[in-house]
Model the fold of this input.
Amino acid sequence: MEVGFVLPSASRESREVDVVIIGAGPAGLSAGIYAIRAGLSAIIVDKGNAGGLAEEAPFVENYLGFEGIKGEELAKLFKEHAMKYVEISERNEVRDIVREGDRFLVKAEKGEYRAKAIIFATGTTHRKLNVPGENELFGKGVSYCVTCDGYFFRGKKVAVIGGGNSGAIAAIYLKDIGVEPVVIEYMPKYMCEKAYVDIINEKGIEYITNAMVTEIKGSDKVEAVVYKDRDTGETKEIKVDGVFIYVGLIPMSDLAKKIGVETDKRGYIKVSPKMRTNVPMVYAAGDVTGVAGQIIIAAGQGAMAALTAYEDLMLRQA
Amino acid sequence: MGYIGDKDKEYLKGEFDKYLKEKVLLLVFTGPNCQYCNVATAIAQEVAELHDAIEFHEYPVDSEEAKKYGVEHAPTVVITDGDKFGGRIRYVGLPSGYEFSSMIEDIIDVSRRTAEVSEEVRAQLEQIDKPVRIQVFVTPTCPYCPRAVRTAHRFAILNENITGEMIEAIEFPEWANKWNVMSVPHIVINEDVQFIGAYPDEQYIQYVIEAWKKAQ
Ligand SMILES: Cc1cc2nc3c(=O)[nH]c(=O)nc-3n(C[C@H](O)[C@H](O)[C@H](O)COP(=O)(O)OP(=O)(O)OC[C@H]3O[C@@H](n4cnc5c(N)ncnc54)[C@H](O)[C@@H]3O)c2cc1C
Done:
């Protein structure tokens, strides 16, 4: 076992700042660095750990400068870099935002922050599959996080539902730690990058296409997954001990909506190329904008959002 | 050669200088045939060396001290004032990975002799007048687990009847199997009420209250 260390960062004090950044994933951390370097005062607030969803990424092979690095380690590097500049308050959920004249009052678990601008870098949460057995067997073999729970299934067979990039990466990770995964994909073809297709083939991971999962079966724990073969209409069943669900993401945009920020039909925050939302002095960056679901893009958008906030704050002051 | 890097040490020193107040005991209980005991001891020692307020001790798991603190497994790390916190704030298994940061935050809270919760949660905690044991099963690669561990520990700091115990599920598979742990964080209260996930304090306390009421 490797012994990693993640440092805590838990600012407790309420304060007034130029910009509150909500979310300490790649987008928020990058925004923090750019905001402080530009000359703004800022705080990043996250309900969990700094690092965001990147902490769940088993192995990242497409972030510039790193041929391959565990998401956990990349997240740690991001966090340590950002901590050099900006205060990060972890395990501190933002619960509400209210307007006070030309300021925003951001109400979080551990304090209240008054700000001239807000950057939403709140990311996404895992989407549910919505089939019978999913809720009933959650924690009894149904999981949404391979890095958290993969180890419990060593020597066993599991289904990974969803064959997009996240599902593919999850399956590869499972295989590497000694679990036997089978990927079940709805569409009639591979839905992940070719780089992952190659690894899946090389490692001999089964990848079933054109299959609609209809049920997760089990009494006390997961015993099987049932799907309809969309080619033949046949119903099939695979015996498994676990089911990891990677069927997409839901944007965390409710707080933004509450202060009038526009989203698209799926709930992703609408942004201009410079990361402005429709509400003045409110910006969004990263997965919550629905652009790509990639770390490098989230980080880039975070930087852009901070620079635009700087531009707007300085113009207004002039 | 140490486990904690120089840069990390520098940062931790700064945090400790800023926040540590009263003395904190960092106790490690070790035993034979214990794969990670040496590592647990080394890590605790390295942390203790960073600040005068932290005092490190190692005891055998079959010692009088272990009995006094209610410790039965090795390695167990206890963070305490040696008095009213007893052995109620503890880690069974290695506090590495994401749990390392939980341990550092515990050291700070124990040294401050307090922890942050909202007024509402504080009032609910005050009712608890019988022993409640919160066990939080984790894996070191679970980013959501520290939140659940820290909540158990913050509650334990604020109420003398509460014990908050992290259990590393991969190091103690039989224990995890007993509760069918397959997703973490998996929380077991008084070996009775269970839930899975990292919930906010307001929801977490409801499960604690439920277990406490059932114990009446
Ligand atoms: C299995 C898996 C594998 C992946 N592999 C790769 C890969 O190889 N390469 C790649 O580029 N990307 C990968 N990704 C995607 C990558 O993790 C995301 O694109 C990236 O993390 C998005 O960053 P973000 O900052 O926009 O959002 P997130 O990382 O989701 O961060 C958002 C943060 O906001 C916080 N938050 C939300 N609401 C609140 C609130 N109300 N108050 C306080 N905080 C809040 C959350 O706690 C979270 O920490 C993978 C994802 C998964 C699941």
